[in-house]
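Predicting structure from sequence has reshaped protein science. With that in mind, we have picked out one protein's residues alongside their backbone shape tokens:
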Amino acid sequence: MQSQPPGTVYVGIVTYNSRNDLPGLLDSLAAQTYPQLTVTLLDNASTDGTPPWIREYAPQYHRILQINNVGFGRGHNRIYQFWREAMTSYDFYMTLNPDVQLTPTYIEAVVDEIQSMGAGWGMGKLLQPNGEKIYSVGHALKSDGYAFNIGYDLPDDSRFSTPREVFGASGAAAIYRQTMLEALAPDGNIFDPVMFMYNEDVDLDWRAQLGGWKCRYTPDAVAIHRGSQPSAWLRAEALANRYLSVMKNTSGRDYVLRHLPRIFAHVAARLLLTPREGAYLLGKLSQYGAKERERRTVPRVPRSRMREWYRWADRQPTGQPTSLMDRVRVFSRG
């Protein structure tokens, strides 16, 4: 039996005021053992000198310089659409954040895991900058649409040393099979264009799971991810995107009985306690909510499969707040 030939990994990097992060990231890319990489940097109108730095120090890579900030998801959509006609069924698209540094075998190990297990997408082990604690070893999804990073802020120990299937992958360093993206995004928008930043990767996870694809985590692929704390506006954006994803991907019965009451309650609480964030949340849901529900994903897997993933999420270790009470406490602190 002839083995599958190695495809090209099209690496997309969306930057915004990322000048200080780029040298480490690009050095780690240059050291990758995977033989076929095509790298594109899209800058979102940075003001810290990123565009001239890219022109001077990264002339070997493809460049797209925006005149305005289109966000994470739409930035990657533009990169993917640029290369889409050139991609074959053997190829992959990688979303890579500027504040990530890859170990040399990261891309090779993730691609090998995806191919050997017949998966649609995957990721490796993302560590915090100290190298001792986990940032993410995959996404888990709660029944109310809340997603969290498995392992976040926990020691890197034996719990995270085994390859396995996970619900989804962090967009900071995820690799997607081209055949999956073609199936999920026939219009070329791999991420939902209405989502400026945050939770667009979870939305793609959800759509892929409903489409019957599998995601793999491999601990042999290691990277450092610094991460950042979002502003109040971006927290509201993340929350709005979470609920838009719920509207699009959850079943009709769950949407009416479980999600709508929670969404109304959460919007009311935000309007009362954090009025600016609440107003933004209400405005975005009002503008896009009905449209998202109209174009909801048609599942190819039974509803019971998603219930299995919700129960699975309850067993996953993380330092993030996952219970409703813990999340309320975080919310009350702003």
The chain has a mean pLDDT of 92. The CA atoms of residues 26 and 58 lie 8 Å apart.
